[in-house]
Structure formats: structure tokens, C-alpha cells
Amino acid sequence: MTDLNSLTVADARDALRKGETTAVELTEACLSAIDAAGALNAFVHHTPDMARDMAQAADARIKSGDATALTGIPLGIKDVFCVKGVPSQAASRILQGFRPEYESTVTQNLWNAGAVMLGKLNQDEFAMGSANESSCYGPAVNPWKVDDRQLTPGGSSGGSAAAVAADLCLAATGTDTGGSIRQPAAFTGIVGLKPTYGRVSRWGVIAYASSLDQAGPMTKTVRDAAIMLGAMASVDPQDSTSADVAVPDYESLLTGDIRGKRIGIPREYRVEGMPPEIDALWHKGAEMLRDAGAEIVDISLPHTKYALPAYYVIAPAEASSNLARYDGVRYGHRAKLGQGDGITEMYEKTRAEGFGLEVQRRVMIGTYVLSAGFYDAYYNRARKVRALIKRDFENAFAQGIDAILAPTTPTAAFGIGAMDSSDPVQMYLNDVFTVTLNLAGLPGIAVPVGLDKQGLPLGLQMFGKPFEEGELLNHALVLERAAGFVAKPDRWW
Amino acid sequence: MSITEDQARKVAHLARIAVDDAALPALARELNGILHFMEQLNEVDVTGVEPMTGVTPMRLKRREDVVTTGEMADRILSNAPDAREGFFAVPKVVE
């Protein structure tokens, strides 16, 4: 039998139901794998006692015949989710020592389903970054490696991606504000789903940009993403933007039949300087869907080019407002004050010490674009462009397009520190294929499709219609089956 | 538009982030680079377009205006860097 920690959620569920293994055994296998994987820096807060208690409770529940698909399944949780009594600091020094007195809705839903908490996962500070390098815990490391360089697992959900790819957990939670689930999924050869805005509650998820943030699953397979989403999603009175849409049984919607569906190929995603390998992969993906009976249609999303600058106005603006709460008064870090320092010095020193450079940069950009005299020129203009970006997608769907196929990232994983010398804008370009979806609030899924010539995973993503995650997952399943991506990183850690 | 060192100092103060004077030139340069990138947005014709506030076409939820929770001062204060006698404590605000 394969190592228990390398099972998919679906296979583990089936094995648990048949009595072939126990939640305790699964959990111990993951805890051992985590202990041996310190070099990946994926898990940053370990909760083995909690995991063992929850696993025992899960085994009792399975015996009593009251199990859900996630009962006894060991998961990793991105640090950005508040878990009661467990350090939850969104990888920021400013939340050092913070132990929430409450539970995020997503994690509560998972625990209610019987899932097991293994610990908290590394990420970029406040989910701001594309390489997991802006973390107070230091960078997470990609389990994929082709030479002596250490590669980034992507960001911001880099710890989640590394942990799933290295079989440290069966699945993990992530959040996606501009691509933070899909880009790391692509860099590590796993599946990452960003649901429709409003599908998954934001309650208890430490906020970055509230009109863009959405939590979702990071898994080994599309089926696992369907199972995880079903448990994470809910209609939540605690989140005023949670949509009143019933949560379907996503797994039952996985038929593998997409005959007659129309798949859009947006011409604006063929960007200058895109490596030929990515372009070839994209063609291959379209062929796979055509072979499965779908119709491939060229479409235009004319405002795509403006998504990135619009995002880098809107997200920092919302961040500057959301992060105003970190003032050294109510929780987390407070700077040591000098003689005669008043409350303003306390705020300014606390935030200078507590926030990393990228967070400071975004808070200041956000402050600037919202300040008197610039609000219309930057913020309002960006919000208008956002409306046009959303309209592009609406037009495509109105013309009978069922899903859209695009590359997930412009490159495969790059070396840790490779972006250090470049300016922030170069780093932001990593998000070129992913931010459009957040601006439009649509669901999207990254699926591993192949390896590049160095042997690193490359992914494609599919976009779906609002609240049609079931259909989107079904399209992704077809892509996954046709691609037959089974490669795993060689263990070096 | 371009940010001067003085404006960078002002933005840092508005954001309540202490920045050394020596770091201001680099900060201004960086902010300028980002703002320059954003200026692409000026190419877009946005005449007659309403700025988007939320992506889902739904009315903000409402509820009865009643107290739904409370009586948990201890839990609220439990993470404070400095809490005394049921209050958050801060440096002197008023002379």
C-alpha cells in the first residue's frame, strides 16, 4: 500500500469507510511527514495534540456511521485563517502572539465535517506576494527541484501548495485575492480552486482586499477539490457578502461529460514574451477538451491588459483600510516606546516594526490612491475599469461560452530570491493571468497539465460562470484525465 | 504625476508608518514606479461607466438592529499588548 499521507482525500475517505485504515493512522503518517519536512518550511505552527484528539474523535464518528466525506481527513490550514487558540498571524510580525478567541467559518465548517487540523501553513505576509518570500517565517520552499537552486512554491498560499505537493497533508486551504491559490498550485503541480466571490465565507479570514479575497481548496485532484469546496462553502450570516445560494454536492456533478460545451480561448492572454512552452501547453489543453467533445472558440476579453494596473490600485486601497486595525492597541505587536512618545509615535513605530516591506509598500500606495485629490484619478478610475473587465466576461458568457481556458502563470517556478533585484512591478507581472478573475468575482481552477523541459510542473486554468463551480470542476476533471499528470517531486528534503 | 520626497513623507505619515528620512528618496522612487505602471489606466475610455463597488449583484444584507452578542470583555482584551482594569491601555493621548 502507498504511504497513507500520499493518499487523495477521496481514496482516504473510501479506505476509512471500508475500515482499511483509521483517522489516527492517517494523521500519524502526516505528522511524521511534516516532522521530516522542516526544510520546506511549509508548516509554521504545529498542532499535533489537536490533530490526535480530532483523529480519535473522527474514528469514533466513523464507527457510529455518521461520517462525512471529510471525517478523519488530515488538513493543513493557511495561517490567514483564524483558528481558536492557535497562533494565527497571516505570516506577519504585527500579529506575533495573536491567538484568536474565535474560529473562522471555513475552518469551523471543516471541523464540523470531521476534518483533522495538522497545523498552520506558511504564506506571504497578509497574502501579499507571489513567491512566499514576504513571510515573517521565511520563505516556504517548493518540493520540486531540478538543480541546486531552491525554488519558490509561489504565493501567497506557498506553504499550502508545498505541503500538498509534498504529501504532508491530504489537502489544504488557501485564499486567492489576485491568484494566490492558482499560481502556487501551478508551481507545485497540484489543483487549486478559487470559488466565486461570495461562495465561501470570509468571516475569520484575516483580510487583505475584501472585495477580492476568496478562500478555496488546494488539493491533489479535481475530485478532492470538489469534496473540499462542498465542506468549505456555506451561506453565512456573519459575512454580509456571503451569497444566498445553496451549496450543491459538487462531487456528484463530476460526470466527465463535456460534449457540446463551448470553451473560449481568450486571445488577449497570448502576451508578449510568453515562453513557447506555455503556448504549446495551452494548445495541447484546448486539443484535449476538443477531443472530449467540446467546441473550441476564439474569444476576446479586450480589457485584459488593464486588469493588473486596476488590481494594483484596488487591492492596496482596500488593504490600507483593512490594515488600519493593526495599531498596537488591541492585539499583536506593540513597539517599545521612547521617552515622551505619544500615541502617534506608538502607531508609527509599531507599524514600521510589525509590517514587512511589501506590506508597507502596498499600504502606502493604497493610502496615496485614496487620498484627497487622487481618489478620482486612481481609485475611481480603477473601479470603472474593473466594471469593464467584468463586462468582458459577461459578454463572452452571453455569447454561449461555457468556460474559458488560459495559462495559469507566465513561467514555471523560479528560484527563491530571483525576484529580489527586480522592482515591485516585475514581481506583480506574475499575476497577469490570474487577477482578471478576482476583479470579475468569477470561479477559476488551476490544473497541472505537464512538465516543462527542465522537469517543472506547468498548469492551465479554467474560468467558469458565477456560482457554477460544479460545471467548472467537471471541465477541469476532463482536462485532468486527458493530461494524466501523475509526476511527483523527488524527495530531497 | 510624480511623488516627491515630501509627498512620500506625507503618505508615510497618513499611513502611520515611521520612515527614516534617509529612506525617503528610495521610497519615493518605488512609489513612482508603481504609479507609473498604474497610469496605463488612463488609456481606457470609461465614459458613462459606473465605478464597481461589489462583484455580485446583490443588495447588502440587512438584519434587525438588535444586540446579538456581547459580555465578553475578557476575551476581547485577552490579546491586548497592554490591558488594565478591563480597558485597553495606551500612552497618554491628551495633555
TrEMBL record, chain A:
Ranges where the Amidase domain occurs: 25-473
Main enzyme class: ligase
Pfam families reported for this sequence: Amidase (PF01425)
An MF annotation (GO) of this entry: glutaminyl-tRNA synthase (glutamine-hydrolyzing) activity
Transmembrane segments: none
InterPro entries with a match to the protein in the record: Amidase, Amidase_CS, Amidase_dom, AS_sf, GatA
Catalysis performed (reactions): L-glutamyl-tRNA(Gln) + L-glutamine + ATP + H2O = L-glutaminyl-tRNA(Gln) + L-glutamate + ADP + phosphate + H(+)
EC number: 6.3.5.7
Keyword set, alphabetical order: ATP-binding, Ligase, Nucleotide-binding, Protein biosynthesis
Catalytic residues, chain numbering: K78 (charge relay system), S156 (charge relay system), S180 (acyl-ester intermediate)
Entry function: Allows the formation of correctly charged Gln-tRNA(Gln) through the transamidation of misacylated Glu-tRNA(Gln) in organisms which lack glutaminyl-tRNA synthetase. The reaction takes place in the presence of glutamine and ATP through an activated gamma-phospho-Glu-tRNA(Gln).
Family, similarity comment: Belongs to the amidase family. GatA subfamily.
Subunit structure: Heterotrimer of A, B and C subunits.
UniProt-recorded name of the protein: Glutamyl-tRNA(Gln) amidotransferase subunit A
UniProtKB/TrEMBL annotation, chain B:
Catalytically driven reaction(s): L-aspartyl-tRNA(Asn) + L-glutamine + ATP + H2O = L-asparaginyl-tRNA(Asn) + L-glutamate + ADP + phosphate + 2 H(+); L-glutamyl-tRNA(Gln) + L-glutamine + ATP + H2O = L-glutaminyl-tRNA(Gln) + L-glutamate + ADP + phosphate + H(+)
Domain of life: Bacteria
Record keywords: ATP-binding, Ligase, Nucleotide-binding, Protein biosynthesis
Transmembrane segments: none
Catalytic EC class: ligase
EC number per UniProt: 6.3.5.-
Pfam families named in the record: GatC (PF02686)
Gene3D superfamilies named among the record's database cross-references: Glu-tRNAGln amidotransferase C subunit, N-terminal domain
Oligomer and partners: Heterotrimer of A, B and C subunits.
UniProt similarity note: Belongs to the GatC family.
Job description of the protein: Allows the formation of correctly charged Asn-tRNA(Asn) or Gln-tRNA(Gln) through the transamidation of misacylated Asp-tRNA(Asn) or Glu-tRNA(Gln) in organisms which lack either or both of asparaginyl-tRNA or glutaminyl-tRNA synthetases. The reaction takes place in the presence of glutamine and ATP through an activated phospho-Asp-tRNA(Asn) or phospho-Glu-tRNA(Gln).
Protein name: Aspartyl/glutamyl-tRNA(Asn/Gln) amidotransferase subunit C
Gene designation per UniProt: gatC
